[in-house]
Every structure is written in C-alpha cells, then in structure tokens.
From TrEMBL:
Top-level taxonomic group: Bacteria
Transmembrane residue ranges: none
The keyword DNA-binding appears for this protein: yes
Pfam families registered for this protein in UniProt: HTH_17
Residues forming coiled coils: none
Designated name of the protein: Excisionase family DNA-binding protein
Domain Helix-turn-helix, first and last residues per copy: 2-51
Keywords on record: DNA-binding
KW DNA-binding (keyword) present: yes
GO molecular function, a single term: DNA binding
Length: 77
C-alpha cells in the first residue's frame, strides 16, 4: 500500500514538513507516479514501529526498577 506525504505524516504522527525533510535526507524512500505525485511505501515503516515498541518496553522496565540507595550519604545530624 502506498501513502501520500500527508497520509504518511498522519500515520507516523508527525508533521508534513518533517516527512518532507526525511524524504530530502533520503531516510524515507519514495516513488513518483505518472502524474508526478510522491508516493511512499507503507511497509518500510515496519521496523520503525518494531523498534519503537522495544524502546517503550525498555523504558517501562527501567521505570519499574527501584533506585538504589546512595552509600555516600552521611547524616549530618
């Protein structure tokens, strides 16, 4: 399935300008149809979302980990 730049921005929850910047940087692959419209293949973002899920799980695990007590704290009283 192919998306337009606007649909891609909505799919990725980013601005249209940001998607255009990523295209210019070569980070998003595009094709042009016979009318010259820019089309973006949707499946190229699968790994992006997989890595995003891994990162969310890592952050969640780290947030559940208790903060160790600092051994260098001295009671001044």
């Amino acid at each position: 399935m192919y998306l337009t730049i606007e649909e891609t921005a909505q799919y990725l929850s980013v601005s249209v300008t940001y998607v255009e910047e990523l295209i210019l940087q070569g980070k998003i692959r595009v094709i042009h149809d016979s009318e010259g419209a820019v089309l973006i293949y949707k499946d190229q973002f699968k790994t992006h979302f997989q890595q995003l899920e891994k990162y969310k799980k890592l952050v969640e695990e780290l947030s559940k980990e208790p903060i160790p007590e600092d051994r260098d704290i001295k009671d001044e009283d």
